[in-house]
Design a protein that fits this description.
- The chain is of the alpha/beta class.
- The strands form 4 sheets. It has a 7-stranded mixed sheet with strand order 6-5-4-7-10-15-16, with helices on both faces. Strands 11-8-9-14 form a 4-stranded mixed sheet, with helices on one face.
- The mean pLDDT is about 95.
- It binds 5-S-methyl-1-O-phosphono-5-thio-D-ribulose.
- 5-S-methyl-1-O-phosphono-5-thio-D-ribulose (MRU) binds next to helix 2 and strand 9.
């Protein structure tokens, strides 16, 4: 399995046993500061997710799963009734941290279900053990999914390709080697010579700060561009393929991902460049018929008016700051998931692969 052992950092890790804590690499400090923070209660996990200290759809799912374990530590000696109430309270609370990445809700509901089921046959201390084991299992599965997404997806890339990616869908966004970056790394490890173009990804610069940082450490050729340069770079013939991650994929194949992904897909379509998505099954939301009902996170105006700590817009200016957009399925050529490649992308193929 391609674990994070290939990296000299870990995105998140549980330290200790049932009374342990969650350690997160605080991604807001990267690339200048590589600082780990200890989350010893559910509130700090919630804050870590909300403030993007841990980010990327699969990683926030794994962090939330450990957050559930943390949240019930304090009631391990209480009655089953009190334990169940606290479990529900903690799950509901974590679900308010961010709205778009469905992996968060998928992981929380899995933890809730396991906890409530175990409570029917075991005492709270045993349930706490079971919850921690379930969180660990979610982490292991995510790691394996990344590996398999990479193996399937690498066949979509060819020697000599210029590959454009948006935001960060690497090890920092998962418990393993990433999704879009797992595809790129797996192809690179096959010996394919790739040249990655990383969109900076305004306003929070996940591409500039995180994707370039990861790829440079892994020896993959990477060039940073501003988001507004993507179409021109395609026009110049430097890009043969686009690969991004996803935060939620509707039943028809519409894809929610970091704001700016839709523009990249439109530009790729105009230049006849294939647009691929890499995501685990936990990112599919089959309950959503299309992207029209995708919950899109709205974030603070200050992320747009400030660049780092510098004010770049007039005080008091009106700002609109959706953190994600929806790329319609007709612009998506294939999805690489842990079970294989979905292509063409449509409801039928998705059901065959995901159900
Ligand atoms: O706001 P972020 O940084 O959490 O957004 C992350 C993305 O949009 C990623 O592309 C997506 O979560 C896939 S990560 C494997």
């Amino acid at each position: 399995m391609d674990t994070q052992d290939n990296n000299d950092f870990h995105t998140l890790q549980w330290v200790g046993d049932v009374d342990g804590y969650l350690e997160l690499l605080d991604q807001t400090g990267l690339p200048s500061e590589c600082i780990y923070i200890a989350c010893r209660d559910v509130e700090s996990v919630w804050e870590g997710i909300k403030m993007l200290r841990v980010r990327g759809a699969p990683a926030i799912g794994v962090a939330a799963a450990y957050g559930v374990s943390l949240g019930v530590q304090s009631v391990k000696d209480a009655s089953s009734g009190l334990f169940a109430n606290r479990l529900n309270e903690v799950c509901d609370f974590l679900a308010t941290s961010r709205p778009t990445a469905v992996n968060l809700f998928w992981a929380i509901e899995r933890m809730r279900k396991v906890g409530l089921l175990l409570l029917k046959m075991s005492s709270p201390p045993q349930v706490l053990k079971g919850l921690l084991e379930e969180a660990r299992q979610i982490e292991r599965e995510d790691c394996q999914s990344c590996h398999d997404i990479g193996l399937h997806g690498r066949e979509l890339l060819h020697d000599g390709d210029g590959v454009l990616t948006h935001c960060n869908a690497g090890a920092l966004a998962t418990a393993g080697s990433g999704t879009a970056l797992a595809v790129i790394l797996a192809a690179h490890e096959q010996g394919k010579r790739l040249h990655v173009f990383a969109d900076e990804t305004r306003p929070l610069l996940q591409g500039a700060r995180l994707t370039t940082w990861e790829l440079m450490r892994r020896g993959v050729k990477v060039t940073l561009i501003c988001d507004s340069m993507a179409a021109q770079v395609m026009r110049e013939g430097r890009v043969q393929v686009v690969v991004t991650g996803a935060d939620r994929i509707a039943g028809n194949g519409d894809v929610a991902n970091k704001i700016g992904t839709y523009s990249v897909a439109l530009a790729a379509d105009y230049h006849n460049i294939p647009f691929y998505v890499a995501a685990p099954i936990s990112t599919f939301d089959l309950g959503l018929k299309s992207g029209n009902d995708m919950p899109i996170e709205q974030r603070s105006w200050s992320e747009v008016t400030l660049c780092g700590k510098t004010q770049v817009a007039p005080e008091g200016v009106d700002v609109y700051n959706p953190a994600f957009d929806v790329t319609p399925v007709n612009l998506v050529h294939a999805i690489s998931c842990e079970r294989g490649i979905i292509a063409p992308v449509n409801r039928e193929r998705i059901m065959d692969m995901v159900k």
